[in-house]
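Chapter review: from sequence to fold.
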Amino acid sequence: MRIAIDTNILAYAEGVGDIARRDASMVLLTRLPPESVLLPVQVLGELFRVLTGKAKCSPDIARYRILQWADSFEVADSGWSAFQAAFDLTVDHGLQIWDALILAITAENRCRILLSEDMQDGFTWHGVTVVNPYRIPSHPLLSSLLI
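The token string follows.
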């Protein structure tokens, strides 16, 4: 089963936010089978913005960290079809355009789960279920993936 990661999970892992979220994110990321994890390119762009803005990293350090994530997991590009689907998600379901783009890329790449704290937990679209990884108890789809 393929799984996509939203920006907030990586930002927490980078230390943006509280220590509990950082630790939980690091444990989560080490327990996911790396060959099943997808990073929508939008996520890496947003993470760069968070690292250079909120975390006050220099652009060269932020670039280095982004490239480390890209070396660790598969990265999926966005194309016109993903944007078209994102526009539909925005209009039909009220998602913000950049969240909608992440969900559309996730669906195009045949993922079953999008891990996100920012989107509605349990929302399902085109076979992708949004799962809050910090929810207790864990969603059964997520529990089945952890190694």
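Two observations follow directly from the output. The chain has a mean pLDDT of 96. The helical segments are 7-13, 19-31, 41-52, 59-72, 80-93, 97-108, 140-145.
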